[in-house]
User: What shape does this take?
Amino acid sequence: MQLYDSAIKQTPVLAPLKGVWEKRSLLRLLVARDLTVRYKRSVIGIWWSLLNPLFTTAVMFYVFNTVFKARLPNGQAFLPYLLSGVLCMTLFNQGLTMAADSIATGAGVLTKVYVRPEIFAFSATISSAINFLFGLIPLTVVLLIFGKHPGWKTPLLLVFMTCMTLFTTGLGLLLAIAYVNFDDSRSLINIFLLALQYMTPVFYPISALGPHTQKVIHLNPLTSYLQVFRDVYGGNAVSTVHEWLMMGFTSVSVFVLGFYIFGRAWPKVVAKL
Amino acid sequence: MSIDLIVEGTDITLAYRRTRHRVSSLKQTAIDTINRRIAYENFYALNSVSFTVARGETLAVIGRNGAGKSTLLKVLARVLPPTTGRVIVRGSVAPMIELGAGFNPELTGAENIMLYGTLLGRDSKVMQSRIEAIADWAQLTEHLDIPIRAYSSGMVARLAFATATDVTPDLLLIDEVLSVGDEDFQARSKARTAEMIKSGCAVVLVTHDLATVESMATRALYLDHGTMRAIGTPEEVIDTYHADLR
Assistant: This one.
């Protein structure tokens, strides 16, 4: 028999995780809902969701390759490098903002039915990961055009995607607290995200920077995620052990921290929804 | 004996620290912090509310708007954790608080039954096998495969009610939902609710309709500004409420 006793203290992080695991069939339905709404009911659904990253890539390619005549070292092709960068940043941005929004948009349910709110953040990041997989189609085409192929490291893509999902879920939950408490936090966060984007080597090679700037860029965890992704899918960069460790460490620690702080803040957050 | 108590609430208190000016922007918070103008006050949505509901009992919660009635239901639905005090709920809960929360207009009727039922904590495999029966009760069998944005509001209400009441829970929470849809649906939904109560579940009912309280409730609780003003038989409590209104 189910028993709810408000006096029983819940273990931070572990209790919400267990709650999400027990409701994984709900998680699957929520992801299916997101994907159905986006793809199934419209023929151009998949292409529509790819339009943004592809168009961004086209604009950036024109600006940096044609206007500024930027060249990567050793004659490396620019387009696969750029497209993989844009796709990785789209995965991060989309996962993060959708996860952060999921709590406010789920308010109708969360204030009436007992469900772990973390499930909503998870469904957002998992749907963006599936979107990201669709984005690999044009990237593969570009790779083949430039005489490359995804390479034998492709299975490691799963590690990258898992880390990114944990990272954006944790960070998204933290942002969700800010979104609910302050109406204007969204615009401030967008500025911050833009700065972060420029601090990630999406359209420039790290080697083009001075030694001091290089250090700063390496402190940005997203640099590690991006370099790992470029390495495992298409070999557009060489990733280092440091970058893999950075990715693994930040994903787990941000995820745990996000679950911990969100769990503590939840009673106050739900009262404001 | 205590096994038959579905709900045990002891000194349930729900307090918010809220700012006097309801600031909700970072800019305003920053300005107010610099000027040291943030004044907090404690607001008690519920203040030391204690009651029990046994199997087969129907407790009606009455009171003016903003007295904390809906808040109390949300505490029982496990949505809002009490600040102090203790709530124990034994068994499954069906919250009929604003039916159809979680419906997505782009999904079909069948997909929404699955999603809503699973949100309410039911097993998704069981839900799959119940779709037909639910649609049948809601008289929506022919419309199951179209997105519910094409439904009328009455159809949506029927689908939501049929899904929410598909299983008999141990505790049924009702927040003024019996007054939707046309006459036929109202009659059928009332009959179904009465059936659920008869089958032995405990009910907590929030309503402004005192006639419903007298006809359905076995006990009543009168909330005023978050505190318990009276608890007892519906007649006594309604008398106290009437005396206060005058």
About this structure: The mean pLDDT of chain B is 89. Strands of chain B lie at 5-19, 40-54, 58-62, 84-90, 93-97, 171-175, 202-206, 219-224, 227-232.
